[in-house]
Amino acid sequence: MPRWLSIVGIGEDGAEGLGPVARGLISDAEIVFGGRRHLGLAAPLIHGETKAWPSPFDTAVSEVLRHRGRPVCVLASGDPFYYGVGATLARYVDAREMVVVPAPSAFSLSAARLGWSLPQTVLLSLHGRNLDLIRPHLQPGARIIALTSDGDGPAALARLLSQNGFGASRLTILEALGGPCERIQTTTAAGYPFGSVEALNTVAVEVEAAPNARVLPRAPGVPDDLFEHDGQITKREVRAVTLSALEPCRGELLWDVGAGSGSVAIEWMLIDPSMRAIAIEQREDRAARIRRNAAACGVPGLEIAEGMAPTALTTLAPPDAIFIGGGASDTSTFAVAARALRPGGRLVVNAVTLETEALLLARHNALGGELIRIAISHAEPLGEKTGWRPARPITQWRWNKP
Predict the structure, then answer these.
(1) Burial of 93 (0-12, 13-18, 19+ CB in 10 A)
(2) What is the pTM assigned to this prediction?
């Protein structure tokens, strides 16, 4: 099939900023798709029919595919494959059917104005996404360029930073870059003075963390006090060992059964943006607490299944790994989990009571796997001196599904 679909990146300078190839693709197209702003910017070049993106966007791809084989042009902001429509269309259209002419992305233009190295900068799209996604990237000294959703986005981001101990961070708001209305303003998060700004904007953040700032460590074993909990939490040291046993790999799905505070599922998702997790929790108050913890730790996409195992497990997507931290004494939960686990998947169970430990010993004898004992002690004051206070030992069983 000939290259019927062209995807053209366009900037705020409109038709004047396009090269001859991009201009020709727009002019020759029978149908031109794009946002209303894009269609307005390219209007002098368009000779065919124009179609603005529908709202919601869900039906947009099928509308483009309906005209397969005809000369169709899709207009996109900047680079169509950097958080753009190009990546969406490429899931349905072979690259050999497309001609793509990118323009500089908002990230590239921002870095050019600031003199920042792109490889040393966190590039983050918050367009149509939860602002909490920036939280894991708030590391002292980090540089972040974030694309926001609208003119109120920078102010909302400034509030989030200020409320979490990053009020001294330097913010640069870059509006309508490359066009006649381009404007660049600098302030701090705590002193944010601007009203609404241009809807098309990026915010560059130079992170400054106060001593009490909510900084999420990069290594497994996030401090317990960064999670809201009622005592039902896999403690820091045990959680680090548990995550190691689960062996997370990019893009995998975890079931956290009896999630309590959701700490294991949350740390699983913090490992990489591609990670997915479902927290299974029967108590409504704990499920609500897990949602708050997930947002506060920057993984608002954590899915929560409210219900009791094993019944709550039967309708969930098959996982790559399962952690059972609560409800491990129910043998039927083991059976359902083992059936649902993908081949090669990992099942990790932690036991505190002798009854649950006996079940793990039986499973180990029947199925093999690895069985370890985790014993942690903390140094604490004992009168005028210091001594070791042991925590309850944990028996952990790990099994790989053949």
Answers:
(1) buried
(2) 0.93
